[in-house]
């Protein structure tokens, strides 16, 4: 707080004081009080007022300086009332009490929201597990009654299963830390599991998988990383080009291991690349009828942030796309 700001705030009080001094001086002059006495009294009065203003200014300045220092140092600004001292001047006390009441109200609302969110999340997870039961049953029935029609139905059920899995991981993405277990995992094993899982689509779409140089161990959670790899494979299949290939390989740099998933598909237009990880963004490819939801890469990005895995995307339109996942090497 600057002294000029303080004086500006006190301008009405100063004006009233000056008017009072003028009127009282005139009154004392009229009643024949000595001029020197009048000057002495008024100077004494003004000096006491000025001293009071100065002391009040420094008291408030010290408080507000500490307040803003504490406020700027906080990551969560809403916690300011938990660390600031209660001021000793009346305006500050009133604002402090209001902030305390407002903070309690906000915390109550946030607590209620959090509880509702947890209930909703648990409901979604329960619902998904319930839905997976008839999906699994349907697949078993199809397996025992294979024909052209049931195989077509199976393809659609696989799509439903994929979307259900997306919803499950999206629901869990805000609390990944409660469900993941970071440990030493084999990179090649995770890739092979997802290639095998998507083998039917890869074969049906006549895509050639290329797997090389994946003999590394990294620190991560296999279940979550396999889901991320699966989402990337889905995109490569969905936006495949002629003589389609999906290449999986890795490179080591220092204590980091990077997994590259590269395809020679449609690629992404340059104006869309910066937005591919946004929720619901489908880009020009998605608008051309590829049934894109814009959720897959958004979930991948969100999970990677929770797992401390860097994810980067490089693409050239009509040439293909490469996604790079960077892990810490397990020793």
TrEMBL record:
Coiled coil: none
Keywords: Cell membrane, Kinase, Membrane, Transferase, Transmembrane, Transmembrane helix, Two-component regulatory system
UniProt xrefs under InterPro entries: BphY/WalK/GraS-like, HATPase_C_sf, HATPase_dom, His_kinase_dom, Sig_transdc_His_kin-like_C
EC number from the UniProt entry: 2.7.13.3
Topology class, membrane: Multi-pass membrane protein
Superkingdom of this protein's organism: Bacteria
TM regions (residue ranges): 12-31, 37-58
Major site of localization recorded for this protein: membrane
Isomerase is among the record's keywords: no
Official protein name in the record: histidine kinase
UniProt organism field: Paraclostridium sordellii
Gene responsible for this protein: graS_1
């Amino acid at each position: 707080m600057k002294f000029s700001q303080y004086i500006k705030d006190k301008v009405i009080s100063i004006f009233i004081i000056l008017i009072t001094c003028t009127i009282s001086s005139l009154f004392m002059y009229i009643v024949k009080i000595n001029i020197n006495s009048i000057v002495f009294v008024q100077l004494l009065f003004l000096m006491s007022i000025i001293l009071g203003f100065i002391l009040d200014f420094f008291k408030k300045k010290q408080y507000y300086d500490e307040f803003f220092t504490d406020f700027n140092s906080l990551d969560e600004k809403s916690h300011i009332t938990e660390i600031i001292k209660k001021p000793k001047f009346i305006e500050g006390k009133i604002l402090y009490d209001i902030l305390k009441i407002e903070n309690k109200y906000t915390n109550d609302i946030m607590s209620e929201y959090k509880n509702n969110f947890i209930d909703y999340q648990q409901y979604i997870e329960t619902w998904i597990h319930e839905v997976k039961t008839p999906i699994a049953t349907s697949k078993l029935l199809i397996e025992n009654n294979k024909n052209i029609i049931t195989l077509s139905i199976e393809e659609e059920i696989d799509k439903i299963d994929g979307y259900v899995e997306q919803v499950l991981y999206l629901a869990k993405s805000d609390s990944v830390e409660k469900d993941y277990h970071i440990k030493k995992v084999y990179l090649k094993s995770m890739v092979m599991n997802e290639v095998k899982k998507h083998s039917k689509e890869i074969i049906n779409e006549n895509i050639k998988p290329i797997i090389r140089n994946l003999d590394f161990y990294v620190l991560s959670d296999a279940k979550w990383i396999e889901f991320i790899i699966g989402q990337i494979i889905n995109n490569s299949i969905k936006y495949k080009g002629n003589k389609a290939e999906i290449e999986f390989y890795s490179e080591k740099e220092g204590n980091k291991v990077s997994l590259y998933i590269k395809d020679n598909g449609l690629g992404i237009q340059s104006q869309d690349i910066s937005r591919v990880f946004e929720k619901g963004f489908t880009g020009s490819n998605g608008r051309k009828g590829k049934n894109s939801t814009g959720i897959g890469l958004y979930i991948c990005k969100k999970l990677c942030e929770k797992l401390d895995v860097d994810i980067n995307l490089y693409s050239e339109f009509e040439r293909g796309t490469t996604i790079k996942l960077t892990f810490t090497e397990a020793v």
